[in-house]
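Homework help board

Subject: predicted structure for assignment chain

Our instructor gave us this sequence and asked us to write out the predicted structure in token form, then describe one feature. I got the tokens but I'm not sure how to describe them. Can anyone check?
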Amino acid sequence: HGLECERLLNKLVIISRRVHGPGHQITCHLEIGLDLCRKRRVVMMTNDGMKEYQALHFDEEEGRHVVNGPISNPRKPDEEEIMTVAINDIILIQGSPVICHGLKNAAHLNGKVGDTRSFDNKTGRYGVHFEDKSLKSALVKPENLRISFDLPDEK
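My token output:
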């Protein structure tokens, strides 16, 4: 659902800018919604329990995600820190856009974009629904997922 939401809001922002103009109230509200949708929120276990972080990008050299947090409400930037973490150290929030990689038994899913819809505690895998509706959803190990920060163009 996260992918569909982001794509729909992006289209609506483009249309609203054209129809109403960039400073119009409707355009501004849509842009705020799109910005919220593009924030990649994750959860991490800390000494103080589960805390929310924002995933910023994937570091190709280290093979790890860069996160900022913990995020509090209201924000306390002086208490936040940026760190790199392995995918196994974060919990993906339902609807997180992901890309599959490194799959051997389901290699046809490598590079495919989907979003997380569930987590199977027995197998330790995320239920991923793919943007390509011809693909069946799959249970995927965390180490075979990367958070998608920029959605590929629609085909």
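Reply (TA_rk): Your tokens look well-formed. For the description, you could write something like this. Residues 53 and 71 are 5 Å apart (CA to CA). That's the kind of observation they're looking for.
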